[in-house]
Every structure is written in structure tokens, then in C-alpha cells.
Amino acid sequence: MGSKKQKPKSSEQGPKLLGQSLMAQQFPDHKPVGGESSPRNTSKPSTKKSIAAPKPQTAKSNRRIWLWAMCIFAICILCALLVLFGNQLLGGIETSSIQAWFLAHAAEWNAVLIVIIAMLGLVIAQWLYQYTVPFSIFQELTEHDNPAVGLYVAGFFLGLTLALLGSLSGLEKLPIPAMLNVGLALVIAIPLMRLASWMHDHWLLYQFSIVKELCQDRNLGTGAVCFGAFVGTGLILQSSFIGESSDWASFLISICGAFFLGQMMFLIGGFLFQKMANYDFHAEIGQRDNVSAGIMLGSFLIGIGLVVSASIININVTKHFPIGIAYANDLTEKDLSRIRPIFEEQKYFLSSQSAIMVQENAWVIQDQASQQSYLVTKTSQGLDVSIHKTPAEILRQLGYALIIGILSIFLLLAVGKLSSRLLFPRIALADEVRQKNPAIALVIATVYIMVGLIIAQCYGSLFSSI
Known about the structure:
By secondary structure, the protein is α+β, with helices and mostly antiparallel strands. The chain folds into two domains: 105-316 and 394-464, no CATH class; 319-387, no CATH class. The protein is 64% helix and 7% strand. It contains 16 helices and five strands. It has helices at residues 13-26, 59-89, 96-104, 106-130, 137-142, 147-168, 176-204, 210-215, 220-241, 248-276, 281-286, 291-311, 336-345, 391-423, 429-434, 438-464; strands at residues 319-323, 354-359, 362-367, 372-379, 382-387. It has a five-stranded antiparallel beta sheet, with helices on one face. A hairpin with a 2-residue loop joins β2 (354-359) and β3 (362-367). α7 (176-204) packs parallel to α10 (248-276). The N and C termini lie far apart (92 Å).
């Protein structure tokens, strides 16, 4: 009664033993696999070579990286100084031919130096970003071979590169402004990119932890969403960095306003995406590690970033218009009556409270009624008037971008559903996503990005004129 019943032996064991006995009769020297004592040995000797654990990154290797980075930076500075002040630095030695050669090939040198500066900026960005995340990027990429963290870091680098491109737009020949602009862009873009990641973790993908999904679950779906969010944020920062502002207030309003506008569009887009997708992307990405759902949402965020980027393009760019009147002497307040009609043709009005302040080789017309200032400079054909956008104009453009962004979200969702019906009429897109089909997800992802590019192209000229 107390003895346990033995499990019946498999029906396959008898034929196997019989086959082994027949084999032993025909081939006396043959031995069964696993030795004579056991007819079958399930344990196989391990043939995989042991891999030594990678050595951790030491302080000496870190110092070596920083030494190379500083050498590259010093070479950039030396080339720039040689181009600008070659005669003075070399003590009056004839350097006109050297300087002329550098200036003749300024475009090529500028491209090479900007690439070096950008690479140096990415190295500094990775070093600074490492101190803001609760995991080791180097360890996850090299020791754990984590593709999810690879997507995360790749999205961060690509988004940061897009932001740096905005800071480099409009530069002409010499690399010193490029160095200054890249440095300023890094100081602003790295904290904003990290803030965007925190907002995505707490507000967009709020039902699970991004760090846990990336590091513990190696969730490629989460990595795809982070990749799309970083790229979309980089596109928005790229447009906000283009141009120059008259003061720090306008500059900060344009940069921060564009950034928070983009994150607001991401949150609204994620909410509407959840309502219209016919599946719960939180459950698909966080619980089922569904990479197809991550691709869909990440590409949708890139489409939103393209639209918002086009809506805030040239938000800092100064407007110019010429005045075909030559002045040999200084511009005085008596001359305002002559140039007032030209201002009115450009839809700018000078009130009777306008005053003129003289600067070096230029004049500043300050209109006390509208709180608008105009920079007037001499040219070969007359005068050139520069108008910086006021904070009110920047906020107005951000308001237009908010309205167009919300409308574009609905358009992206509608076109995504329509394209899935037209391209795959016999299947349901939600079912394919639940079945973790990345092929269908990649096709619809291309549609989202394509529609974002079309909207950005159609409305780019409209937004630039606002």
C-alpha cells in the first residue's frame, strides 16, 4: 500500500534494446553510445570553449580615450588658428600661400573638422549620459550583448546627431563657430534628451519600467519605442536650433517650447494610438515582449517628430528685407519718415515713439509701442533690416504647431489603417501584431514615416512664413 507505483516504461525502449542486441550479434566489437552499462546516455560532453570574462574598463583606458579626444580637439584649434592668424602666429613669415590654400579648400576642411567635432561630441555625450542611467552601457553592449540596449543607445546617438546638425546649419567656412555651436548644442541637447527618456518612462510607457525591460528582459519592443522617441526628439531639437535669437529669453523659449511641444505630441499620439490600434501596446510590449508592437509605436513617434519639426522650422531665424536708400552719414530720427513706408510694405509699423540707437557699423531702431527692435546695417545697395522674432511671435508659431500636430496625428493614424487595408486586405493588422509579425510591422512603419515626410514637406514652406 505504501509503495509508489512505478511509471510504465516507454514502448520505444523494448525495440531499442532489441535493436542493440541484434547489433551486438552482428558486430561484436560495437559498443552502444554511452558505454556498456547504459544503453542511452543523455548527457553530452560540452564541447563549447570557455570564454574568459571581459576585463572591465579601467581608469587607464579612460584616460587614454580622453587623451586622444583632447589631441583631436587641439588639432582642430590649431588648424583654425593657422587659417585665421597664420601671419601673426608665425612671426611675419610669408604664409599668404598657406593661408590662401586653406581658404581655397575651406569647404573640404570644414566638412572634415565638423565630422571630427561631432564625433568628439558623441564621445563626450556618451560619457556624460552614462552617469544619468542606472545601468552600465558599456557592460550591456559588450559583455551581455544586449540588442535592446543597443537600439536604445543607437536612438540616442542618432537623435543627438540630428540636434547637432541643427546647430551647424548656416555656418560657412571657418570651424570656430562650429565648435562653439556644437558645444552649446551638447550642453542643451544632452539634458533634454535625458529628460525626454524620463518622460517616456513615466508618462508614455507608464505601465512598466523601461530599464527593467531593456536590461533584464532584453525587450526589443521597448528598444524600438525608445529608438523612435529619441529620433523624433532629435528632429524637433534640430529645427529649434536652426537660426539665431536676439536675446536669451527668445532662445530659451524657442528651444524649451519646441521640446515640450514635441513631448506633448508624443503623449497625445500614444493615447490616441492606444485607442485606435485595437490592441493594448502596453501589454504587448511590456508583458509579451512584442517587437512588432514596438516597431509600430516607434515609427509612429518618428512620424510625429517629422511633422512637429516642420512646424517649428526657422523658429529662430531672423527676417531680412532691403531698403534701397544709401546713407553716407548716420541714420537719425528725422529719416524715419522716409523709411516708414518701406516698413509698412513688409507689414511692420514704426510708431511715433520709435528711437534710434547707434552701434558699431549699424543702427538699432527701437519701437517702444510694439516692443520690437530692428537692426539696420549698410550694404553696397543701401540698407538691410534684420528683425528678430519676439517671444510673442515664437509662442504664436508654437501654437500653430500644436494645432497642426494634433491634426497630423489623426492623419497618421487614419493613413496607417487605410494602408493596412489596401496593402493587406485579407488580414487584420491587430492580429498580425499580436502574432508578433515584424514583417507587417516594418511595412506599416514605413508608411508612418512616409506620411510624416509628406506632411512635413507640404507644410514646411507654410510654417517658415509664419
